[in-house]
Structure formats: C-alpha cells, structure tokens
Amino acid sequence: MSDSLSSAEIRDLRCIASMMIPRSDTYDVPGADDPTIFADILASIGRDLAAVRQALASLAAMAGGPFADLEETRREAVAASFRAEGGPLPATLHRVVLQCYYRNDRVVRALGLEPRPPFPKGHTLEQGDWSLLDPVRTRPRMWRDVPPR
Amino acid sequence: MNEMVDVLIIGSGASGAAVAWSLADTRMKILCLEQGDWMKHADFPSTGRDWEARRFADFDISPNRRARPTDYPVNDTDSPMKVANFNGVGGGTVMFTAHWPRMHPSDFRVRSLDGVADDWPIDYTTLEPFFAENDRMMGISGLAGDPAYPPRNPPMPPLPLGKTGTRYAKAMNKLGWHWWPSDAAIATTEYDGRAACINLGHCTPGCAQGAKASTDVTYWPHAIRAGVELRTRCRVREITTNEHGMAAGAIYYDADGNKQFQPAEMVIVACNGIGTPRLLLNSASSRFPNGLANSSGLVGKNLMLHPWPQVRGYVDEPMDGDHAPMLSLWSKEFYETDPNRDFLRGYTLQFARGTGAVNEAITSADAGILPWGKDHHRIFRDLLHHRLLIGVACEDLPEEHNRVTLDPVLKDSHGIPAPRIDYIISENTRRMMEHGIARATDILTAAGATNLYTSRTILNSPGHLLGTARMGTDPKRSVVNEWGRSHDVKNLFIVDGSIWVTSGGVNPTSTIQALALYVADSIKQRLATLFD
Question: Measured by CB atoms within 10 angstroms of the end CB, which terminus of chain A is less buried, N or C?
C-alpha cells in the first residue's frame, strides 16, 4: 500500500473538497480546492490516510467510477447520498478538509480573526455582570444532610 | 538489579503525584515509575497555528487515535463510551478540562440515602481537610458561598463570567435555577510559580502558559525537591510477589526496552480505573491465579464512566468562543435525588463556552448543521462563536457487568496484554440522561438559543475511569480497605479512581486527589504497623 494518495484519489478528494466549501465572492474567500489550501490538506492527511482512502473508495463505488468524472447533477446526488449515510467516512473527509481550510490565513482573516496561535498573546475575557449571582447567594443550602454513620 | 526502595509508586498522574508529595516528608526512599514523558509546554498545541488540528492527532483524548509511543491501546469496541486518558508526567491532568467540583456529602452514602449501590467506608467530613489541602497544592480558582456545597474557600478568585457566562446566568435566573461559577484548576493570579491564565482557549490539550494545574507543574516540582525520584519511559508489566504473598516490586520496560526489576518494600498503584485493573490482572501468578489483590473477583468490575450527553445551540450575538477556558458555570439544581423523578441520584449541568473555527466546522458538519455548498459560508458565520453548550454530567451506578478485562489478542508495544472494556448504560442512567437533556434544552431556550442539537453519548468522553478496584471493609465485596490497602496483599495500596465505590455526578480529579492524600496520611499514621 502506497504511503500517499494516487492521482485518481487526489482528483476525487479535490472535487469533493470543492463541493464541501466552494469559493465565494460574497465572502471573499477561496474554496477548499484552492492550491495552497489543498496542498495543506494533502500534506496533513497523516494518520488519516487509510480512512481517507476508504472514504474515497466508498464515494467511487457509489459513483460507479471516478467521482470527479461525473457530470454535475449526478455528482451532487452521489455526494448527498454519501453524506446522508453519515458515520466515520464523511467524518473523515470533514476532518481532513476543514482542519486545513479554517486555519488558512485568508480564510481566518475573512472571519474577522487574527491568523495567529493562541500563545503567547492569549485573549481577553470580560468579567461579566457578577450582580447576576445575587439571587443565587440568598438561596438556602441545597446539599443533603447525611445521617451519622 | 535496581536498588531497593521503600515506596514504589506506579503512575505519575493526579493521584500518584499527590501521594508522592505527601509521603515525601517521611524521608522514605520513594520512586515513581511513569510510562510517559515529561511534557514540554512549548510543544503544546496552542503555540502553533495547527492547534485545533492537533486535538485530532497527537493531542487527541483517545489513546487509540493519539497512538503515541507512550500510549497503550484499549479495546473499547463493546462500549458506547470510549476511553479518554493521557500517558505522561501529570497523566490525565495534562489533558483535563480543569473543571473542579468535589463529590457532595450525599455521594458517600448512596445506599443509606437512596437504597442503591453501596455506601463508601469513608465520608465527606473525613476527606474535607484533604480537599482543602489539595485545593491549596493544585491552586484552585473559584468563589466561596455556593449554596450547593458545604463551605469551602478556593485560594484564587474565579475565572470571569465573560459574555457566555453572563448569557447563561440570565437564563438560569429567569428559570430560578441554581448556578455558580465553576471552581477551576486554573490560576487566575500568579500562584506557586505558575503564571495566571491568559485565555489561550480550551485547556484540554495542555496549557502552554502553565496556568492549568497539571501535576507536572503542581505536585511534582515539590515532591522532587523533597527527594522523590521520578523515572519516565518506564512501563510496568507486572507487580511481583514473594513467598509471603507480599508485593516484592515490579517488572518494567525501561526507555530502551530493556526488562528491569525494581524491588520495593511497598507498592502504590496509581494508574487510573483502566490501567490499574489491567496491571493487577497482568500480575496473575501461581499464588494469585485470578490476578493480584483479586480474591473478591472484583478487580476490573463495576467500571463507571459518567455518561455525558450534551446539548448545544446558537445565539444571535458573538459569545466567548474558544477565547477562554472551556467551562464557565455549573448548576447543582438537579444533583440530589428527587423522589418525584423517574430515576435515582442526579447530575451536574456544566456550562461551556464555544469552540474555535476548526472545531466548530468539523462538529457542525458531522452533526448535519453545517451544509456543503453555497450556503456553507453564510451558515458558518452564524455558528462560529455563537455557540452555547451544556453538558449533563450523569452519575452511573456500579454494575459488575461493566468491566475491564485483558484482551486476548490486543497488546501494547511491549507485548503486554491491553485492556478491554465492556460497558452498558443502565436504564436508570438513561432516564437521568433524558431528564438532563430536557433541562439543558429548557435553559438554552431561555437563553434565546436556536438550532439546538443533542449528542447523547460523547464518543471519547469524559475520561472518568472509576470503580474497578473498589474500597470497603468487607474483603469479599471490595479490593482495598477503607484506607486504600489491598485486603489480600498488605504492602500493596491503590490510590486512583479505581477505588471509588460510586461515581457521583462530578468530574472526579478533586476527589481522586483528596482520597490519595487521605490514603497517604493513613499510611503515615500507621507506619509502625502498616503491614499488620
């Protein structure tokens, strides 16, 4: 078994990624098949390789051949059936595509977030309204008495 | 052969660290064997851009998916709930949420109060000084005055409510139900050499700031300064016994894979509710053919895992998202048994903040909330940082058919038989779960959340591994006595969650460590007659 996807598997994965997250002019974001993002997806499959292969094989079986070669309407129908079956196969494809898409700088900026790791800058958490606790403070004790042993 | 030690502790997690520190003042020669490594905080996920993805890889809570060289596999095929743990210095505290409730007084008297399961041989009052000592050592933040608990005084102020906590609080006040800011094992001020929390996000995959109280930054520095030796990358295969039926030491594999024997006067097991029965069962011998300390036949039985349904929804304004520790409040409104309900015992409601972009996308896509295609972007923007999520921390009662055994096929990288778990959620627990789901739904609705989604079991959650070597006064009905000593092997002690009699409806680490300190104190009080 090869330690990377075949060219046919890559074509199908790229096709399903673009259907999962298409490019949007409205939100000014690339699709998941964007070259930079898709390269990250391929490079990050890692421990999911066997599961990705299984998912793509299932998709190809449902398509009756290469998924990417289907005409659009049929492709949409197969993708919908694949997703509707649920379970670990679509979950695997969600994980490998979405974990890379939503860490891409352009995508992160479009969401109004800073493209940085949490450490060392961290975040600020507002105190909130502690007076909301006043009615709880006045409640009688709630724990049960325990009979002597 | 290694030099004899007075005390051999197996496992450096929550309980192993606490017992090591407590016993250090005896000046005995103490050694702890840990199968994992010291964690480097600079390597934790929050230091890199792939911080969310690593929660599905080398920082996954499931040992089967994480599959580090220091992990061992668990066959959990026959359980709707999967095992979560971590193997390294600090054990599960490296990857816990740092939520810090104690057991309640009623949790120790379940049979007397509710007529089910068994009473513990100790009570809340006995543990109270050890709870307080542990809060001081771990560095706990929280707020005194919670009417759901006997008085306690966390040493640091609570985490802020934030936007999410405020939203929950208003909903709870509207319903007239109890809530309180959660105690958390997170430093909110500088504390004992630890920096204060700077809100790096969810604390589960380790804290790069060192604000979270994993025992590698709390107990261990003190224990090592006091003379305890901690040896990493040492995986124990079995505990051996001598001709008197006493523990003689342990056989382990060192970092180079060499088999070693470590002799000891006393052995303390601290490997959690899965690892401990695994080790005892793997320590079977001609003298103890059913496994060590197992004359009762209860080693591995009565596994409790805390079923933990979750309900989430989305509100119309941005919340805290993943820009803060995960948990904010708890509610004990439904904790104590109510005869008007169709189940016994109760649960804690845990109020969580949101999640990051990757996690939101993956979990919502899996749930069918987030579509593929042209609507993906619009709907994702309605979800991200708008999430509220309530967890229902259900008490599951001990049942002997829920158990840990040795898998006949699966082995770890050293060829040691792996644990297998068989677990069924009981009817009482199922009714409790449904009640909790309904109340969580009420709360989210009162908070104005829509698009509600319920997850009845969390596949890899919550990592509360309890009950498989229970404590008690009757050797026929328990594995260890009321102060943690094996009934069968008088120099063998167990201090982790496996000695629990019932599980309560709370995250267990606070009580596990209080128990470990109590057992250590009991050992110190009895040194002259310890093995009698």
Answer: N
What pLDDT is stored for residue B196 in this prediction?
Answer: 98
Using CA atoms, how far apart are residues B120 and A146, in angstroms rounded to an integer?
A: 12
Q: What does the pLDDT read at residue B199?
A: 97
Tell me which chain A residue has its CA closest to the CA of residue B202. Answer: A118
Instruction: Provide the 10 A C-beta neighbour count for residue B434.
Output: 16
Contact B269, B496 (CB under 8 A): yes
Within a domain: A109:
yes
Q: Which helix (H) or strand (E) holds B390?
A: strand B387-394
Counted domains in chain A: 1
- The half-sphere exposure of B176 on its side-chain side, counting CA atoms within 13 A, is 0
Note which residues in 102-121 of chain A have CB less than 8 A from chain B: 102-103, 108, 111, 113, 115-121
- Rounded to 10°, the helix A88-101/A7-20 angle is 80
Q: How far apart are the first and last CA of chain B?
A: 28
A105-137 pLDDT, tens digit each: 999 999 999 999 999 999 999 999 999 999 999
Does residue A22 form part of some domain? yes
Interface check for A142 against chain B (CB to CB < 8 A): the answer is yes
Range of the domain at A22: 7-115
Residue-wise pLDDT for B260-271, tens only, equals: 999 999 999 999
Give the domains, in start order, of chain B with CATH numbers: 5-354+386-529 (3.50.50.60)
Q: CB neighbours (10 Å) of residue B382?
A: 13
The pLDDT of residue A148 is above 90:
no
Whether A137 maps to a domain, the answer reads: no
- Distance CA(B367)–CA(A141), nearest Å, equals 39
Percent of chain A with pLDDT over 90: 93
In a domain, A136, yes or no: no
The pLDDT value given to residue B293: 98
Q: Rounded distance, CA B31 to CA B10, Å? A: 9
Cβ–Cβ of A132/B169 closer than 8 Å? yes
Instruction: Give chain B's residues under pLDDT 50.
Output: none
| CB within 8 Å: B53 and A99 | yes
Q: Determine the 3-state secondary structure of A17 from DSSP.
A: helix
Q: How far apart are CA B186 and CA B29, in angstroms?
A: 32
How do residues B203-221 score in pLDDT, each as one tens digit?
889 999 999 999 999 999 9
β-pairing, B229-231 vs B30-33, is: parallel
In this complex, the residue of B209, B324, B368 whose CB is nearest that of residue A119 is: B209
H-state helical runs in B357-503: 357-367, 376-383, 427-446
Q: What is the pLDDT of residue B456?
A: 87
Contact B386, B317 (CB under 8 A): yes
Q: Please, which residues bridge with residue B10 across strands?
A: B33, B269
